[in-house]
């Protein structure tokens, strides 16, 4: 069985259908027509994950339909993945087929690449990794010119770096991002760059402060920090917090305070429900917040956090789930109007889409 074929000829139709769907979801709020940001038709995905399927003495890249783990779709190439991933796939396969050390109990392969040309491969095993494996893996990493991570239960061996470097341009400035292995990053780099530029423009130049919830590795934090006096950013993932701190330092962005709190915890702190040790030394009352930026998970903002955002003059919201976005806007619609909205096609040939809205106080 071969991988499903994409159909670039149908792309415009699919994108128009998504635009119509977003317009319908936002129609109750008198939103303007969505600005449209399309994707490359092929080779747009910078991450890919494959299980390995064994037939005889050979292991093949494989994917499965949702809910079906018994009938693999065997993959030789993957047109939606970056050209770097497609170039690495056959070379990695040839390497594990030529080496019992590399292939023994190897069950999953993950690729992480960047528009800047960096690449990291993660090899996952159902066995301990020893010195022989490390020697073989070091030779492979050098041959493929990649960083490599070996994972097994209780083990994580890193050859090279445990992150890739991305470079994205926003309003003429190039920002440098460390993207850690195993942490969330935007999968479509071209569309991510369009999202950053849209958010940068939508926020505008401000003389007050920005609150950012769910900041991740600082993807939006870096460019948005150049538009305001100072930023208070929050993120709960320790890996993402460490990456964000490194990215702030690497880019010389020094007007951001980052705290490891969930959005719900920060809401409690701002409402003075209870104190948090992680906020010690930070004077929340010294901030003059005019805007809040949120990029929540698919579940959207919880009701209390949504209510918190009502305090701000401007709410800049990036969403990976337009249904929960619409539910959050419904809660805010009596005090805020949608002045701008956008569709970002991160996931061509699927029903998934990213959306952005700017809500301003009435």
UniProtKB/TrEMBL annotation:
<dbReference type="InterPro" id="IPR011869">
    <property type="entry name" value="TrmA_MeTrfase"/>
</dbReference>
<feature type="binding site">
    <location>
        <position position="219"/>
    </location>
    <ligand>
        <name>S-adenosyl-L-methionine</name>
    </ligand>
</feature>
<keyword id="KW-0489">Methyltransferase</keyword>
<dbReference type="GO" id="GO:0030488">
    <property type="term" value="P:tRNA methylation"/>
</dbReference>
<comment type="function">
    <text>Dual-specificity methyltransferase that catalyzes the formation of 5-methyluridine at position 54 (m5U54) in all tRNAs, and that of position 341 (m5U341) in tmRNA (transfer-mRNA).</text>
</comment>
<dbReference type="InterPro" id="IPR029063">
    <property type="entry name" value="SAM-dependent_MTases_sf"/>
</dbReference>
<protein>
    <recommendedName>
        <fullName>tRNA/tmRNA (uracil-C(5))-methyltransferase</fullName>
        <ecNumber>2.1.1.35</ecNumber>
    </recommendedName>
</protein>
<feature type="active site" description="Proton acceptor">
    <location>
        <position position="354"/>
    </location>
</feature>
<dbReference type="GO" id="GO:0005829">
    <property type="term" value="C:cytosol"/>
</dbReference>
<feature type="active site" description="Nucleophile">
    <location>
        <position position="320"/>
    </location>
</feature>
<dbReference type="Pfam" id="PF05958">
    <property type="entry name" value="tRNA_U5-meth_tr"/>
</dbReference>
<keyword id="KW-0819">tRNA processing</keyword>
<dbReference type="InterPro" id="IPR010280">
    <property type="entry name" value="U5_MeTrfase_fam"/>
</dbReference>
<feature type="active site">
    <location>
        <position position="320"/>
    </location>
</feature>
<dbReference type="GO" id="GO:0019843">
    <property type="term" value="F:rRNA binding"/>
</dbReference>
<feature type="binding site">
    <location>
        <position position="186"/>
    </location>
    <ligand>
        <name>S-adenosyl-L-methionine</name>
    </ligand>
</feature>
<dbReference type="InterPro" id="IPR030390">
    <property type="entry name" value="MeTrfase_TrmA_AS"/>
</dbReference>
<dbReference type="InterPro" id="IPR030391">
    <property type="entry name" value="MeTrfase_TrmA_CS"/>
</dbReference>
<feature type="binding site">
    <location>
        <position position="295"/>
    </location>
    <ligand>
        <name>S-adenosyl-L-methionine</name>
    </ligand>
</feature>
<feature type="binding site">
    <location>
        <position position="235"/>
    </location>
    <ligand>
        <name>S-adenosyl-L-methionine</name>
    </ligand>
</feature>
<dbReference type="GO" id="GO:0030697">
    <property type="term" value="F:tRNA (uracil(54)-C5)-methyltransferase activity, S-adenosyl methionine-dependent"/>
</dbReference>
<keyword id="KW-0808">Transferase</keyword>
<feature type="binding site">
    <location>
        <position position="214"/>
    </location>
    <ligand>
        <name>S-adenosyl-L-methionine</name>
    </ligand>
</feature>
<keyword id="KW-0949">S-adenosyl-L-methionine</keyword>
<comment type="similarity">
    <text>Belongs to the class I-like SAM-binding methyltransferase superfamily. RNA M5U methyltransferase family. TrmA subfamily.</text>
</comment>
<dbReference type="GO" id="GO:0000049">
    <property type="term" value="F:tRNA binding"/>
</dbReference>
């Amino acid at each position: 069985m071969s991988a499903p074929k994409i159909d670039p000829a149908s792309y415009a139709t699919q994108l128009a259908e998504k635009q119509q769907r977003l317009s319908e979801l936002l129609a109750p709020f008198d939103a303007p027509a969505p600005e449209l940001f399309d994707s490359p038709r092929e080779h747009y995905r910078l991450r890919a994950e494959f299980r390995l399927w064994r037939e005889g003495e050979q292991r093949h890249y494989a994917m499965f339909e949702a809910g079906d783990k018994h009938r693999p779709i065997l993959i030789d190439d993957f047109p939606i993945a970056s050209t770097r991933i497609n170039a690495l796939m056959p070379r990695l396969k040839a390497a594990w087929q030529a080496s019992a050390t590399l292939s023994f109990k190897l069950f999953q392969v993950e690729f992480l690449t960047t528009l800047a040309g960096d690449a990291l491969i993660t090899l996952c095993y159902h066995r301990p990794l020893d010195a022989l494996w490390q020697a073989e893996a070091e030779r492979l990493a050098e041959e493929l010119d990649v960083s490599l991570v070996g994972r097994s239960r209780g083990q994580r061996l890193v050859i090279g770096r445990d992150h890739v470097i991305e470079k994205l341009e926003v309003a003429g400035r190039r920002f440098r991002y460390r993207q850690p292995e195993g942490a969330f990053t935007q999968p479509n780099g071209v569309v991510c760059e369009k999202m950053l530029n849209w958010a940068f423009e939508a926020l505008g130049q401000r003389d007050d402060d920005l609150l950012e919830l769910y900041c991740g590795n600082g993807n939006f934090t870096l460019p948005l920090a150049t538009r305001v006096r100072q930023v208070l950013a929050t993120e709960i993932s320790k890996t993402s917090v460490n990456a964000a701190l490194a990215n702030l330092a690497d880019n010389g962005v020094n007007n951001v305070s980052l705290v490891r709190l969930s959005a719900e915890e920060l809401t409690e702190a701002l409402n003075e429900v209870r104190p948090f040790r992680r906020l010690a030394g930070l004077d929340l009352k010294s901030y003059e917040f005019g805007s809040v930026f949120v990029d929540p998970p698919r579940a959207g903002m919880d009701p209390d956090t949504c209510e918190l955002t009502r305090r701000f003059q401007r709410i800049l919201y990036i969403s990976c789930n337009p249904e929960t976005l619409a539910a959050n806007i419904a809660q805010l619609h009596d005090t805020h109007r949608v002045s701008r909205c956008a569709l970002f096609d991160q996931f061509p040939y699927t029903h998934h889409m990213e959306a952005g809205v700017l809500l301003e106080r009435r």
